[in-house]
């Protein structure tokens, strides 16, 4: 993990879907809770670094399948860009992040002005890009992603 010099940390929380009351699979072995599977996939996201992506820092598992994700965060988003920046520059930086994600088999699925953040130097940083990956394409949660 790279040092997060000027970044703030942000957190978001969600619930993993609960397992059915029958907690054993057809082979008789206990099923792994969805929150544990998400924790494992998150470990991969912590290793992914790129100048256009917000760095994932940590994840915590609470009661009732609640997960709390901590990541690099900036308070300004693409709607707050400064004079001197062009839409073309911002679009190029977004595409740099998306290209890197694509090369690593990741899909954003929640790209919006609120997830295209701007660091203190005005550079684009994509946020919340790993939710689709860590939830197994949304299979481990009870809400739609993207």
UniProtKB/TrEMBL annotation:
<dbReference type="InterPro" id="IPR000719">
    <property type="entry name" value="Prot_kinase_dom"/>
</dbReference>
<protein>
    <recommendedName>
        <fullName>Protein kinase domain-containing protein</fullName>
    </recommendedName>
</protein>
<feature type="domain" description="Protein kinase">
    <location>
        <begin position="1"/>
        <end position="146"/>
    </location>
</feature>
<dbReference type="Pfam" id="PF00069">
    <property type="entry name" value="Pkinase"/>
</dbReference>
<dbReference type="GO" id="GO:0004672">
    <property type="term" value="F:protein kinase activity"/>
</dbReference>
<dbReference type="GO" id="GO:0005524">
    <property type="term" value="F:ATP binding"/>
</dbReference>
<dbReference type="InterPro" id="IPR011009">
    <property type="entry name" value="Kinase-like_dom_sf"/>
</dbReference>
């Amino acid at each position: 993990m790279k040092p997060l010099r000027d970044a703030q940390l942000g957190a978001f929380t969600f619930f993993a879907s609960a397992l059915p009351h029958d907690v054993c699979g057809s082979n008789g072995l206990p099923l792994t809770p969805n929150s544990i599977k998400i924790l494992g996939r998150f470990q991969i996201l912590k290793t992914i670094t790129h100048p256009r992506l917000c760095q994932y820092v940590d994840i915590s598992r609470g009661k009732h399948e609640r997960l709390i994700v901590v990541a690099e965060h900036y308070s300004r988003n693409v709607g707050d860009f400064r004079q001197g920046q062009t839409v073309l520059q911002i679009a190029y930086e977004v595409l740099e992040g998306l290209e890197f994600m694509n090369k690593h088999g990741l899909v954003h699925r929640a790209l919006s002005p609120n997830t295209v953040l701007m660091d203190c130097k005005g550079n684009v940083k994509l946020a919340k890009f790993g939710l689709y990956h860590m939830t197994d394409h949304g299979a481990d949660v009870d809400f739609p992603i993207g």
